[in-house]
């Protein structure tokens, strides 16, 4: 941002505070704020707003928004969240705004602003302005605002004032927005209030496993305990906690939930983090197997999108409970989000992941110091971190080796991981970087949704220095409802939509003329067609046109093609005229076509520039025609006679 903008903002805020002083002296002071307090409040209110966000707003509206927010906060008992969603009215509120306004006053706490804006985004609302100062206030015994304190960390309590302008809404929609935000603020409050207690539960779980370890290798147990400690040490944002109890064995296993032990966002009994555990009275075999395995730790994605901090499916660290005989008796579920440092650290520094990485490299037989060994470690470092936490050792080995073999190859590749509980399918798609576009990604997403009878819930593209772009697409599926599929067939479909127009032209030419002749024609015409032509006609249409272009090049005479384009029927036809060196004059060709009983509806010219000899330019004029009589055309029956007649008339022979 420029100093000029900062200076303009400073002048604007100065003018706004001057307005506050004038109005306060005139008897219109805000609740609990004198002249100095109101001015100080306005300065704090807009202190960290980017200049570009407010430079076009009138001082009276900046004043009205800030004062209205302070008036709204006039009485707030400690711990109470205040929220309103409204459309400011000049008569009632003293200011105007083209958007709907959200106002919040709350105890200052982490994650509040990003959780609020994420909820507005989930509701399909665009944010036009976000103001979120921390204001220190002094309140009386019943929460009445006495004074706006100096922002120096001294007197008063810190309160979060949040104002957000969104797309203008009305009627019931205002209440829907309010209810959604109310639920989010409650979740944030629960998560923040119970944060220490949830970390305490992790310490408790570590102690239990240390005192009563399950029947697994000691080295594995050590790694698991170190991972749990690592998560506890600020690598995992604890948002919710729930305990499950297991009774019975095999298919007779029953699950109970100890709701009294729930913490954070999972105090809400309606919040389902793992439906396969919570929604079945008779558990499916895969879930039963999962429950009774001796390994105490699992890292999975929940069924619940986080309402706190980041709007993504929450991660879950599951830790089993064992009795004295080593039987699984329950499960602790810690729901939350891995922190940014967990995603940015080297896999060699993270418990469990470092072990997976080293096992994979050792299994390949590659030396870590070798070229391929370093390349494989780089693949593992850049592997989607959420996937790395959940994937099995065997699957990681197969996938990472496949990616290693793919390096720098200009081709499309697909790697699939199916969730053990069939809740989703994770797809890593590699595509040549120069072909990657948003349009291509959307087409690939549709192919994957159709293949797995699901819906894309997340997608992330990575375009680095490699010649390949990587797209990680997660498809949410219905357990028991995933169709059978062939990974290679799906990959070929993805390759087909990713294939460039020249690539498809090559395949079509080779298929039609053979490798030698087709390859030669491709070298001649691969770059000959304009973008407009390739957008209008398929490579298969171009093969037919190339036959005519070659004749025009050989004979130096006009070529033509009467045909029916896709969607044309009855009395509508299309007609292409191929002319070397220059376009045919429209003033000459239109009378000829009209004389032949046709009306020209549209005409589009294309420049074709073949390589390797012959005319440098061949002009193609494409005419959309309709019969003047309105009669249907049997195009196959009239094509030869029509083209001969046009040629003779054009030459003046008829």
Question: How does this model look, in words?
Answer:
With 654 residues, the protein is an alpha+beta fold. It has 24 helices and 20 strands. The protein has four domains: 189 residues, no CATH class; 144 residues, no CATH class; 155 residues, no CATH class; 124 residues, no CATH class. Strands 1, 2, 3, 4, 5 and 6 form a six-stranded antiparallel sheet that branches. Strands 7, 8, 9, 10, 11 and 12 form a six-stranded antiparallel sheet that branches. A four-stranded antiparallel sheet has the order 13-14-16-15, sandwiched between helices. Strand 7 and strand 8 form a beta hairpin. The longest helix has 23 residues. It is globular.
- Could you give the count of β-strands? 20
Compute the number of structural domains: 4
Secondary-structure-based class equals alpha+beta
Tell me the β content: 15-25%
Helical residues, percent: 40-55%
């Amino acid at each position: 941002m420029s100093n000029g903008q900062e200076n303009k903002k400073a002048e604007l805020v100065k003018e706004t505070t001057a307005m506050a002083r004038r109005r306060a002296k005139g008897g219109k002071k805000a609740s609990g704020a004198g002249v100095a307090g109101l001015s100080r409040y306005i300065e704090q209110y807009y202190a960290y707003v980017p200049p570009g966000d407010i430079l076009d707003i009138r001082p009276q509206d900046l004043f009205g928004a800030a004062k209205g927010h302070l008036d709204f906060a006039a009485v707030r008992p400690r711990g109470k969240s205040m929220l309103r969603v409204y459309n400011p009215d000049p008569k009632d509120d003293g200011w105007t705004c083209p958007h709907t306004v959200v106002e919040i006053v709350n105890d200052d706490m982490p994650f509040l602003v990003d959780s609020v804006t994420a909820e507005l985004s989930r509701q399909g609302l665009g944010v036009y302005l976000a103001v979120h100062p921390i204001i220190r206030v002094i309140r009386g015994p019943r929460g009445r605002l006495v004074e706006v304190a100096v922002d120096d960390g001294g007197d008063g309590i810190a309160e979060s004032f949040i104002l957000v302008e969104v797309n203008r809404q009305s009627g019931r929609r205002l209440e829907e927005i309010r209810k959604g935000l109310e639920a989010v603020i409650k979740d944030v409050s629960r998560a923040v209030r119970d944060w220490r207690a949830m970390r305490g539960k992790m310490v408790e779980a570590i102690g239990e496993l240390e005192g009563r370890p399950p029947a697994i290798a000691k080295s594995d147990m050590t790694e698991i305990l170190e991972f749990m400690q690592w998560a506890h040490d600020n690598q995992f944002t604890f948002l919710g906690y729930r305990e499950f109890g297991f009774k019975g064995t095999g298919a007779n296993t029953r699950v109970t939930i100890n709701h009294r032990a729930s913490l954070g966002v999972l105090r809400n009994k309606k919040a389902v983090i793992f439906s396969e555990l919570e929604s079945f009275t008779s558990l499916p075999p895969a879930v039963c197997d999962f429950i009774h395995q001796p390994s105490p730790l699992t890292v999975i994605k929940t069924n619940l999108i986080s309402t706190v901090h980041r709007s993504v499916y929450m991660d879950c660290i599951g830790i089993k409970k064992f009795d004295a005989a080593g039987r699984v008796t329950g499960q602790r579920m810690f729901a939350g989000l891995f922190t940014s440092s967990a995603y940015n650290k080297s896999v060699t520094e993270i418990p469990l992941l470092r072990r997976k990485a080293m096992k994979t490299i050792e299994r390949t037989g590659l030396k870590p110091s070798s070229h391929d060994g370093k390349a494989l470690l780089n693949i593992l470092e850049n592997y989607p971190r959420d996937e790395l936490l959940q994937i099995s050792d065997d699957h990681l080995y197969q996938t990472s080796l496949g990616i290693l073999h793919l390096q720098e190859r200009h081709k499309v590749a697909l790697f699939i991981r199916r969730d053990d509980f069939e809740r989703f399918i994770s797809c890593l798609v590699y595509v040549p970087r120069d072909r990657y576009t948003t349009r291509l990604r959307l087409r690939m997403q549709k192919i994957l949704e159709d293949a797995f009878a699901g819906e894309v819930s997340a997608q992330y593209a990575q375009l680095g220095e490699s010649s390949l772009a990587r797209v990680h697409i997660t498809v949410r599926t219905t357990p028991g409802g995933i169709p059978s599929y062939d990974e290679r067939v799906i990959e070929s479909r993805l390759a087909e939509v990713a294939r460039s127009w020249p690539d498809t032209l090559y395949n079509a030419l080779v298929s039609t003329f053979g490798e030698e002749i087709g390859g030669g024609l491709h070298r001649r015409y691969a770059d000959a067609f304009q973008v407009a032509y390739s957008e209008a006609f398929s490579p298969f249409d171009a093969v037919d046109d190339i036959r005519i272009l070659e004749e025009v090049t050989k004979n130096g005479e006009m070529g033509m093609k009467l045909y029916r384009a896709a969607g044309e029927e009855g009395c509508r036809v299309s007609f292409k005229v191929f002319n070397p060196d220059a376009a045919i004059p429209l003033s000459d060709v239109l009378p000829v076509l009209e004389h032949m009983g046709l009306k020209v509806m549209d005409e589009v010219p294309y420049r074709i520039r073949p390589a390797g000899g012959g005319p440098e330019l061949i002009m193609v004029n494409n005419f959309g025609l309709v019969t003047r009589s309105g009669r249907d055309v049997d195009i196959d029956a009239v094509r030869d006679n029509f083209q001969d007649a046009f040629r003779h008339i054009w030459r003046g022979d008829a």
